[in-house]
């Protein structure tokens, strides 16, 4: 767990530094998450540190049992209620937080931070390359249900990373950088053209 926690903390630190340097106007720019600005994405990333289990369950109950509907409502409400400084302070205070999704793994927590970080940087045109040692555990931990969660069908598809030794599946070959494949697997349409 120590190695993955170190990797997660490094990713959060890089994201914090990037967000701290963002011009104020960029916080209100669209992200790759449909309907969310950068501000909503950061509110969502930090939600895990601010919401207790009972609060999440209550929110889901109010959202008809849908976590996605609850998370969307929470991100929008929190983005409106919290200042940029508040959001940055929350991220800063939780760089070393040992959070993982309920029923998930620490690799899933890393994926959460990496993917949402890319939601911001790719949308803003920031040429940030996530280090391969952070992308590898995400790709190696790939499970078909994860891609299905994002509406991506990997049946009859063979994924091949061009910048590290990693492959997945069988069928029509799709080759791309590890970063592009992480975006593709997570249903980020902006990455589809980068992989071929």
Please, could you describe this protein's structure?
The chain is mainly alpha-helical. Helix content is 56%, strand content 6%. The chain has helices at residues 2-20, 38-50, 53-62, 67-81, 84-93, 106-124, 132-140, 144-149, 178-185, and strands at residues 157-161, 167-168, 172-176. A hairpin with a 5-residue loop joins strand 1 and strand 2 (167-168). The longest helix has 19 residues, at 2-20. The model has no long low-confidence stretch (mean pLDDT 92). InterPro entries: DinB/YfiT-like (IPR034660), Maleyloyr_isom (IPR017517), MDMPI_metal-binding (IPR024344). Residues 9-96 form the Mycothiol-dependent maleylpyruvate isomerase metal-binding domain. This is Maleylpyruvate isomerase family mycothiol-dependent enzyme.
Itemize the secondary structure elements and their pairings.
Blueprint: H1 2-20, H2 38-50, H3 53-62, H4 67-81, H5 84-93, H6 106-124, H7 132-140, H8 144-149, E1 157-161, E2 167-168, E3 172-176, H9 178-185
Parallel strand pairs: 1-3
Antiparallel strand pairs: 1-2
Domain Mycothiol-dependent maleylpyruvate isomerase metal-binding: 9-96
Protein name: Maleylpyruvate isomerase family mycothiol-dependent enzyme
GO molecular function: isomerase activity; metal ion binding
């Amino acid at each position: 767990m120590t190695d993955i926690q170190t990797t997660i903390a490094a990713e959060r630190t890089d994201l914090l530094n990037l967000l701290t340097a963002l011009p104020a106007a960029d916080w209100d720019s669209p992200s790759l998450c449909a309907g969310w600005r950068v501000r909503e994405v950061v509110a969502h990333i930090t939600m895990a540190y601010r919401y207790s289990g009972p609060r999440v369950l209550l929110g889901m109950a109010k959202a008809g049992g849908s976590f996605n509907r609850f998370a969307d409502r929470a991100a929008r409400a929190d983005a409106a209620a919290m200042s940029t400084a508040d959001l940055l302070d929350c991220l800063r205070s939780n760089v070393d937080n040992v959070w993982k999704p309920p029923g998930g793994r620490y690799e899933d927590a890393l994926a959460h931070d990496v993917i949402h970080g890319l939601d911001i940087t790719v949308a803003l045109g920031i040429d940030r390359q996530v280090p391969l040692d952070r992308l590898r555990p995400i790709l190696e931990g790939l499970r078909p249900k994860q891609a299905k969660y994002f509406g991506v069908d990997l049946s009859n598809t063979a994924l091949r990373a061009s910048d590290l030794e990693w492959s997945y599946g069988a069928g029509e070959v799709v080759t791309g950088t590890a970063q592009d494949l992480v975006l593709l697997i997570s249903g980020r349409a902006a990455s589809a053209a980068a992989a071929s």
